[in-house]
Records
---
Amino acid sequence: MEFAYRFRLNPTPAQRDRLAWTLDTCRQVYNHFLHRMNRNDDISSSFSEQNRLPDLKQWWTDLQQVNSKVLQKVVDRLYTARSNLKKKKDKGHDVGKLKWKGNGYYHSFEYNQSGFELKKTSGRDRLYLNKIGNVPVVAHRELPDDATMKGVVVKRETTGRWYASLQLETNESAPPKPDEPENVVGIDVGILKYAHDTDGHAVGSVDLSAEEERLEHEQRVLSRKEHGSNNHREQQQKVARRYADIKRKRRDFLHKLSTWYAKTYDLVAVEKLDAKGLLELPSNSHNRASAAWATFRKLLKWKCEREGTHFVAVEPAGTTKECARCGVSTDKPLWVREHSCPACGFEADRDENAAWNVLQRGLDKLNIGTGSAESTPAETVVPTATAFQLVAANHVAETGSPTLKREPSGER
C-alpha cells in the first residue's frame, strides 16, 4: 500500500536560504529543458534529456550543488506534464502549452530512491536532505514499522512555510471489498446541510465566517499598499496565511467526515457533481466553491479503497425530483425542503429522498442488492418523514463522527 505523510519543516535561516536557492535552481533547469523541448520536436521522452545533465553540469557549475536525483525529477516532471496534456488533447479537450516558470511560480522539488532520511534522535526529529543538511521537522505521527520511504517532496507554500511529503510504502494491502455489502449508505451533498444520508445523518457545513472576515480585512489592507513595495509583499504573506487557515479548517472537516463514512459502511454512494459547471452558474458560486464537493468525493474515494469499502459515484440529475419509493418525478423549487409525492403519498426530507435515490443508483450501477427487499427503498427501508425530526447537526465531533440529534416525532 502506498500513501504519504506531510510534515512541517522548521529550517534554520541558512537552511531556508539553501532550500529557496535549490528551488529556484530547479525552476531554471525546468525552463532550460522546456526551451529545448519547444525547439526539438523529435525529443520523445525524458530519458535522453536526463542523460544530458552530467554534461550540463560542466558549464553550469551551480548544478553540482543540487542532488542529481532532484535534477532528474525536474526533467521527468516536465515530460510527464507534456504527456498529460497530450492525453487531454486526444480526448478532445482544448489544451494550451506548457508555460515558462517565472520567479515565484515553481513551488516544489522531489527526491527519490536516495538522498533523504528521517532521523529521530533524543526527541528532536530531523529530515536529512542531501546537499542541504539535517532540517528540523515536526514529525507529528510515527511511521509504520514496516513502512519504506520511497521519496520526499519538499514544497514551499505561498505563506513562506516549508513542508515535506514523505512517500511511504508498506507490504500490507487494502482489505478485500465485501461481495455482498450489508451496511450501505447513500449521501446527498448540499450547502446548508453539507451531507444528508439514508441513515438520517445530517451534517451541516463547516463554519468559516470568522476566517473569511479576517481574510477580507487583510485583503482591504493589501489594497492600500504600494504594489511591489516591501510592505506589499509582507501583506501578501498575511493574506496567504488567512487563505491557509480557511483551507486547513475545511480540509480537516472533509478528512474527518470522509474517514467516518469509509470506516463505518461497506458501500458508499455519492453524487458525481460537475463542480466546474456549478461554479459557472450566475448565483451562489462562492458557497459552492467553499463546499469543495469534488475534494470530498476525492478524499472519500481513496479512503474507501484503503478501508476496503465499495465506492460509487452516480449521476445526480433527477435525484431531488424523483420519488425514492415510486420513481414519479415532481418539480420542486429550492425553497421547498420537504418531499411529498402526489402519486404514492411518500413524505420525507428533500435531501433524504435524494440520498435514497443516490443509493439506489449506486446499487444498480454495481449490480449489488438489486431486487432485494433489504436494499430496495421503495418497499421496506425508506423511512417516512414522521419517523424522526432532525433538530440540529452542524459539525463533526473531535472523534471524527458527525454530531447528530434526533427527536421522535411523537414528542414534538
---
Amino acid sequence: MKTAARPENESERLAALHEYRILGTRPEQSYDDITTIASETCRTPIALLSLVDADRQWFKSRVGLDVEETPRDWSFCAHAILSAEPLIVPDAHRDERFKDNPLVSGDPGIRLYAGFPLQNDADHRIGTLCVIDRRPGDLDPAQCKVMEALARQAVTFLELRKRSIRLLESVCQMESKGGMISTCSYCRKAKDEKGHWLHLDQYLSQHTTLSFSHGICDACMETHFPEVIELWQQEGHRSN
C-alpha cells in the first residue's frame, strides 16, 4: 500500500479546513442530498463527502457506509487532494497504489473509486466528494460533470457555514459593556458610549467587523414608493 504524500501547503490546508468547524458535527440534509444525488447519478452503492484531517478522513455525509472515519493512511481521498483534477481508479485491485489497502482487501471492498476534490477559492483542497463501487467500472463524461458541480456546491455550503460563524462571532465580540446594546423602542437607533444615537448599521460597523449593503424591502417599497410599485405593475401587464 502506498501512503499519500502530504500536500506542499498542508499547514495552510488544515487551517482552512478547521475554519469551517465542521469536523464531528451531526448529519445535515444539505450535505446528505449531495451524496444521495452522487450515488444515484453514478449508480454506485457508496458515496461520501470526505474531509481529510491531519491523521484521519472523516465523513460529513455518507451513503452505503456505516463507519464515520478511517485512518488517513488508508484514504484514497488523501491521494485525490494532491491534484485539482478528479482521481478515478477503475479497479483498485489492479492499481499498485491501492491493491494492498485494507479498504480494498477488506470492507468495503473498493474496486471503483472516483474522487472529486473540494477546493476553495484559495486553492485549499480540504477533502473530496467521492463515489465507490465494489465492482470495477468508470464514470462517463456526463457523470463527471455532475460530480464536479456537486463538489462545487458542497464547497459553497462550507463557505456559507464559515461566514455565518464569523457573523455570529462579530456580534458576540462587540465592545459594548456587558454585551448589551441600548436601543430606542421607536426608531430602533442604538446609543453608543458617548450617548450618541446611531442607526443600527452605523453602530455595528463601529463595534464589530461587520459591513453592510443597503436596499429597500418590499414593505417599505409599498409604503414609501407606491408610484414605483404601480409603474412595475404597469410594465408587467404590458409585457404579458
---
Amino acid sequence: MQINPGAAEFPHRQIAGQLRARIRAGDWAAGERLPSIPAIAEMFGVAKQTVQRAIDQLRVEGVLITKPGSGTYVRGTRRRLNRLSRGRYGGHRGYHADLAARYRQQLVQVGRAPAPPEVADAFGVPDGTELVVRRHLVRTEEVPVEVGASWFRTADAAGTSLERMEAYGRPLYQEAEEAIGRRYVSATDQISARQPSREEAEILQIRPDTPVLHLLHVAYDASHRPIEVAQATWPGPMTTLTEQYQVPGPAPEADPDPGLVLG
C-alpha cells in the first residue's frame, strides 16, 4: 500500500480509499479488527496523524467503528430498509417474520414524557404536553442500528397495556388498536437527514458528526385523528432506504370526438 505524493487528492483521502477498497475486497471482514494506527502509518510511510484522519473519515462514512481500549473494527454491511413504515402493517396487517430473524428489537423505556416539538405538532398539542412513550432499540449482530419511540395521547393510553413495560406477541399497532379502540386507517412518513443528538450518537455508536436518517411516522384513524406518532433514527452511512413499486402504464387513448375536426 502506498500513496502518491504528487496526486491532487490529500494523503489521508488516498489512504481512506485504499482501506475502503481492501474492506470491499474482503481483506478485512465485518467485525474484524484493523491493524493499529502506528502499523498502518508504517505501511504507508506517513505520520500517525494522517492515518488518524483517514480512520476518522471512514468512521463518519460508517465503514469503521472504534471501540475504546480495543481498536478499530469493520462495522459491517449496510442495513437495507426496503419496507419503510408500511412494512410494520404487512401485506395482511401482520408481522414480518423475516425481520424478526434479522433484527432484534429491545424495549428500553415506557412511561410519560414531554412531547418533543415534531411529535407535539403531529398530535396538534403544545410543545411539552405529557404523552405516553414507548422507546426501543433495534440491533443486528449486536450492533445498534435504530433508536426509536412510539408516542400516544395520555387520554388514549392511560391505564392500558401501552403504559406497561412489556413486549407483546404481536405488532404494536395491533395492541394499540385494541387498547385505544380505534383502527389504523392511513399513515404518513417524513424522512429527513440531520446530525444526531449527543444521546443518539452514543447509543448508535457513531461519531457526533455522522449524519443520521430520521423518520417521523404518523398513523391516523378513519376520522384522520392521529393515533400514534412514531420516530426512528438510523445511522445514515449504514442505511439504505429502498422502495419497490409498480409503474403504471400509459393511459389508453380516448376515441376522438366524431364531431371534432382535426387539421
